[in-house]
Amino acid sequence: MHEVPNRRRLVKQLAMGTIAGLVGGPKSVFARKHASSNQKLKIGHTCITWGTFPRTGADTTLETALKDISAEGFWSFETFPEVLDSWDRRGTLTPLLEKYPVPLRSGYITPNLIDSTLRKDEIARVIRLSKIVQKLGGTFVVLAPNSVKRDSYSFKENQSNIVAALNDYASAVVDLGLGTGLHQHTGTCIESRDEVYAVMNAVDTKNLKFAPDVGQLQKGGADAAQVVKDFLPLVKHMHLKDYKGWDAYVGYCPLGMGTVDIEAILNMVESGGQQPDILVELDPSKDEPMAPLQTVQKTKTYLQKLGYAFRS
User: Fold this and answer.
1) Global pTM?
2) Cβ-proximal residues to 48 (8 Å cutoff; 6+ apart), any chain
C-alpha cells in the first residue's frame, strides 16, 4: 500500500530543501552568468498547480489559478482547451479573462500516439481543441504523449506509429497557423532520454518542435539541462519545473529547491535567441506543505534573483 505523505515530514523536507538550495546541490556543469536585469524571457505559469484539469469539478479552479497568476505578475498562462471550452459554453470565460487580464499562451492536448486506428478521430480532436486555443489568442499547442503501462510497454514496437502520429498532428496544428511541439512525460509512451532522442531525430521538425518539461526529463532519468542543450534550436516552448524526489508534488518542488539546473537551462535559452514560451509548472498533490500561491511566490522570488521581471 502506498504510504500517505505526512504533513509534518513534508514541512521538514521543505525546510531542508531550502537550506540545500542555499548551499548548492548536484547540478549539471554549464557556464553561468550573474543575475542581470537584461533577461528577456517573459515567464508564464500553467494552471495544474491549482488542480485545474479537464474533468468534472476540477475545471472550477481556473479562476483561482488566473487570480494568482495575474496577481503575481506572470506574463501568460496555459491550460487544457477543454477547460476553456467548458467555461466558454457557460458564458463565464470572457468575464473571467477580463477580470484577470493575463493572456493565454498555450493549450495542452494529449492525443493517442500508438493506436493508428484512432488516428483520423484524433486528428479531428486535435484540430477542434487547437481552434479553441486560437480563438482565445493562444499561439502554441503542446502535444503530450498518451499514458501507457511502462512495465509492459515496448517503445520499439510503437516507435513508427508514434512518429507518424506526431507528424500528422503537428501538420494539422501548423496548418491552422499555430506552433506546436512534443512534450515528453513520465508514465507515457515517450518518457526516457533515449525515447525522446529517437522521436525528435525521426519526426518532421519543420512542423513539430520540442516543448520539454525539464522536471519530467529529470524524473525520467535524464540530465534535463543536457537534453535542452542538445535540442536548443528546436526548443520553442518549455514547462519550467524542478525535481527533488520527495513525497510532495509527485516529487517536484518550487524552482531552485531540486536537482534540475534551472539557471543553466534559462541561460542557454536566453543565449539561443529564439525566445520560446517558458511556463512554470508544479504538479498538485495531497497534503501539500505549501498552498499553490505560496509555491508560486517562492518560485517568483527565485526567478527575480536570476534577473527576471514580472508584470506590475
Assistant:
1) 0.88
2) 79, 281, 282, 283, 284
- Give the chain's domain count: 1
CA dihedral 167, 172, 173, 176 (to 10 degrees): 150
Domain annotation covers residue 27: no
- How many whole angstroms separate alpha carbon 217 and alpha carbon 224? 5
Give the range of the structural domain holding residue 77, as residue numbers without chain letter: 7-11+39-303
Answer yes or no: is 312 within a domain.
no
Tens digits of residue pLDDT in 31-75: 455 455 568 999 999 999 999 999 988 999 999 999 999 999 999
| DSSP conformation class of 188 | B
pLDDT tens, position by position, 202-247: 999 999 999 999 999 999 999 999 999 999 999 999 999 999 999 9
**Nearby residues of 278 by Cβ (< 8 Å), 6 or more positions away:** 41, 42, 43, 44, 237, 238, 240, 266, 269
Q: DSSP class of residue 312?
A: -
Which candidate, 132, 75, 72, 73, places its Cα nearest to that of 108? 132
Contact 245, 251 (CB under 8 A): yes
C-alpha cell recorded at residue 275: 525566445
Beta strands, E only, 241-302 = 242-243, 252-253, 277-280
- Domain harbouring 83, CATH code: 3.20.20.150
